[in-house]
Amino acid sequence: MLALVTGGTGFIGSHLCARLLAAGHRVRVLARPGSGLASLEGLEVEVARGSLEGEGLERAVAGADWVFHLAGALKGFREADLMRVNRDGTGRLLRACRARAPEARFLLVSSLAAGGPGPGPLREDDPPRPLTWYGRSKLEAEREVLASGLEAVILRPPVVFGPRDRDVLGYFRVARFFLPVAGGGRRYSLVYAPDLADGLLRAAQTPCPSGEIFHLTGPDLTWAAFGQRIAAALGRPARVLALPEFVVRACGRAADLGARLRGRPGIFSSQKVMEMLAPGWVASPDKAARILGWTAPTGLDPALAATVAWYRDHGWI
C-alpha cells in the first residue's frame, strides 16, 4: 500500500512513517518547501514538497491508498489562526483527495481536545464540547472529513509522549528537580508515540464503517503520578510542587504577553491553562479494543525509560 503522511516530518508523523515502513508499505511524506527532514533520517520515504495552503496537494495524494493527515497547528494568537490551518487546510487536502485519490482511505489524526474534557471516561459518541481554540479547530476539521464523502476514519489521541517529542520534554527537564502540578487529582490519558503509530496503522487496515471515531489511548493517571513515574525513570527523587490555580492562570497570561512580545506563539498559554484545569481528560479505550482489536502494547514505565534514554542520547536532557 502507498501511504501519504502529512506532518510526516513531525514528532508523531516520524513514528508513523517508521511503523508503516516496518510493515512493508511505501510512504510518501508531504513536506513544506524548505522544511528539514532530520526526523526521517534513515527512512526510505518519498518526499512530496507542498503545503496545506494548496501547493502540491494533488500531486502528493495521487495514487495513495491511505492518507494519514497529521499536519496541523497547535498554537496561535487567535482562534482564526488555528482554523485556517486545521479546518481550512484539511478541507483543501480533502478536495485534492476527491480529485486525485477518491478511493483512498482518509485517516484524520484529530485530538481528544475535539471532544472536550469531562470528569469520567470520555466516549466517542459523547456530544463534543471542545474547550479551547485548538479543540474547536480540530472538531471543525472532523466535520470537514465527515462531510467529504470519502471513506474516512477519525482518531483522537490524548497526551502523546515519546522520543523526539518537544511538548512534554519541558516536564521531563524540570522533573529532574521538582514536579510542578496544577489541578490536584485530575486525571489524564496518555499514549506512547510508537504505540499510537501502531494504532494508526491498525485503523488503516481494519474494515469499519466510514466516519467512525476512535480514541487511541494508553494508561490514565494524575499529572502528579505521571511526574513521579518520570522522576523514577530519570533516577531522581520526586519532589511535587503543588501550584494554586490562580498562580497557573497568572502564568498563562504572562506567557501570552511574552509570546506577543516575541511575535511567536508558545505551547504554554492561557489556552493551555484552560485544558490543564479542566475536569479531566480520560478517554475510554473500549471502542478501539472492540472494533480495531488495538490496545496500547507498551507499559508506562518501559515507555518512559525508552523516552528518557533517547533524550539523554541526543543531549535533550
Walk me through the structure.
The chain is an alpha/beta fold and 317 residues long. It has a domain of 201 residues: Rossmann fold, CATH 3.40.50.720. Helix content is 42%, strand content 16%. It is built from twelve helices and twelve strands. The strands form three sheets. It has a seven-stranded parallel beta sheet, with helices on both faces. A three-stranded mixed beta sheet has the order 7-9-11. Strands 8-12 form a two-stranded parallel sheet. Helix 1 links the parallel strand 1 and strand 2. Helix 1 crosses helix 7. The radius of gyration is 19 Å and the shape is globular. The model has no long low-confidence stretch (mean pLDDT 94).
In short:
By secondary structure, this protein is an alpha/beta fold. Helix content is 42%, strand content 16%. It has a domain of 201 residues: Rossmann fold (3-Layer(aba) Sandwich), CATH 3.40.50.720.
Secondary-structure map:
Blueprint: E1 2-6, H1 11-22, E2 26-31, E3 46-49, H2 57-61, E4 66-69, H3 79-100, E5 105-109, H4 112-115, H5 133-146, E6 151-156, E7 159-161, H6 169-174, E8 179-181, E9 187-192, H7 193-205, E10 212-215, E11 220-222, H8 223-234, E12 240-242, H9 245-262, H10 270-276, H11 286-292, H12 300-313
Parallel strand pairs: 1-2, 1-4, 2-3, 4-5, 5-6, 6-10, 7-9, 8-12
Antiparallel strand pairs: 9-11
